[in-house]
Design goal:
Low-confidence stretches: 1-6, 171-176
Oligomer: single chain
Largest sheet: 5 strands, antiparallel
Strand content: 25-35%
CATH architecture of the largest domain: Roll
Number of helices: 4
Number of domains: 2
């Protein structure tokens, strides 16, 4: 396929056009997916930041992104979606680990072992992982270079206060 016949902007154009607006709101565009198969075509902007993307922020970013995209020289209709990467996205950069601070993760290490723990501090190319060891909580420092894959886990029950305390996560309770 030589090019788009729909007159839609390219991924690069969308990122250049919307990037500044997202940064001002405290988010970065991680990816833009343009699907011109459905009618009308869909433009999905995936954004992430140090604070989670909530519904009010999604609505605000969607309005401003739509206005900016509408200013392009195209009359073609499209569907715009602004979303977060989702929990199934693997953590691949120090920034991803930092943003997932306090969350429970499964991490596969270069030696093939799987470590499950709560993300603590990320610094100097390593992460503190709060793990269960001999019936108690312990902090294990793991270089990011030794992590092959890490994925945030969905939790159905609240974490233990001591586990959160060791991870340095907000909302900890003392004395537990």
């Amino acid at each position: 396929m030589a090019g788009r016949s729909t007159g839609l902007p390219t991924q690069k154009q969308v990122i250049e056009l919307l990037g500044g607006e997202f940064v001002r709101a405290g988010y970065e565009i991680e990816d833009v997916v343009i699907d011109d198969r459905p009618r009308p075509p869909h433009i999905t902007v995936i954004a992430d930041g140090d604070k989670p993307l909530d519904l009010d922020t999604v609505a605000e970013l969607s309005r401003s992104a739509s206005a900016l995209l509408d200013s392009l020289d195209s009359d073609d209709p499209y569907v715009l979606e602004v979303t977060s990467p989702g929990v199934e996205r693997p953590l691949t950069t120090e920034k991803h680990f930092r943003r997932a601070h306090g969350r429970k993760v499964d991490a596969e290490l270069v030696d093939g072992t799987i470590v499950t723990g709560r993300l603590g501090t990320v610094s100097d190319g390593a992460v503190d992982l709060v793990v269960r060891a001999r019936g108690d909580w312990a902090v294990r420092r793991i270089p990011l270079a030794e992590i092959v894959k890490a994925v945030v886990q969905v939790e159905f029950s609240p974490p233990k206060p001591r586990e959160l305390e060791l991870a340095g996560a907000a909302g900890t309770e003392a004395g537990a």
